[in-house]
Amino acid sequence: MRTEKVSSQSSDKLMQILECLAEQKLPMRLQDLAEAVGMTQPTVLRYLNSLVNSNYIYQDPESLRYGLTWKVCALGANLGSYASMRSIANRFVTQLSMRFGLGACLVVEENGSCVYLDCIDSSPVAGRILQHIGRRSPLHTASSGKILLASHSDEEVDRYIAEKGLERLTDNTITSREALFAELELVRSRGWAFDDEECEIGLRCVSRPLRSYTGGVVAAMSVFGDASEMTPEHIEKDILPHLTEATEEISRRLGWPGLDK
Question: What is the CB neighbour count within 10 angstroms for residue 150?
């Protein structure tokens, strides 16, 4: 009976911490969280470490604040009310853009199209089409769209082709089923996608997937810029390592357990 009572008390404390983080809607400092739940900091820290290890919460390395990951959705919580995907990813989008002096964006799929949720352009070139938040583009024309299409089955891709067609936006746009399937297989094998002036002439773009607690792809993050700046060597040696680091960290905050789990 004593063991059951202690276990019950531990569960109650764990839920108190989770509920407090959800109610606050924004990541919290350890001392503020401890004060809010009426526990000592060492006690709260012990529970937080356990929740971090099980991937229900994350700790921001800069602010040291704790926040919920999307894995909480698996418990029926409505994560959208406390932190949108854009709020989670915005700092990373901004950092990538400023680091390289290029554009960076966050893209989701909606009704068979790419929708740009966030976009920061630190390049000196103005007037790019992609810099408009809320803009849509065909999935098969953009690197982010290829990431999203690559997460679908062959049957679902065929349905996309039948319903949307393979519109040509530039001379480089993929317009045949065979070429699209070959491109998507390449995306799946290497884990990233490339758009070589296929959506807009003069613009190249590289993208990586964002995954949630289910392991599925829920969005894509991209870095884009002038074709003269976005050389294959620059992309592979400089941009991709930082893009990979950013997308994996965001995915962890969305509850993705990672490749080693």
Answer: 21
- Tens of pLDDT, residues 35-79: 999 999 999 999 999 999 888 889 988 899 999 887 766 555 444
Query: Other C-beta atoms within 10 Å of 200: how many?
Result: 20
Separation CA 163–CA 52 (nearest Å): 43
Reported as a single tens digit per residue, the pLDDT across 164-206 is 999 999 999 999 999 999 999 999 999 999 999 999 999 999 9
Q: Which residue has the tokens 């894509």?
A: 220
Distance, in Å, from the CA atom of 36 to the CA atom of 17, rounded to the nearest integer, reads 9
Which helix (H) or strand (E) covers residue 208, if one does?
strand 203-211
* CA–CA separation, 12 and 27 (whole Å): 21
CA-CA distance, 30 to 43, in Å (whole number)?
A: 10
φ and ψ at residue 106, rounded to 5 degrees: -115, 130
For the entire predicted model, the pTM comes to 0.71
* Nearest CA among 171, 195, 169 for reference residue 183: 195
Q: What's the rounded Cα separation, in Å, for the pair 152 and 147?
A: 9
Distance, in Å, from the CA atom of 91 to the CA atom of 63, rounded to the nearest integer, reads 12
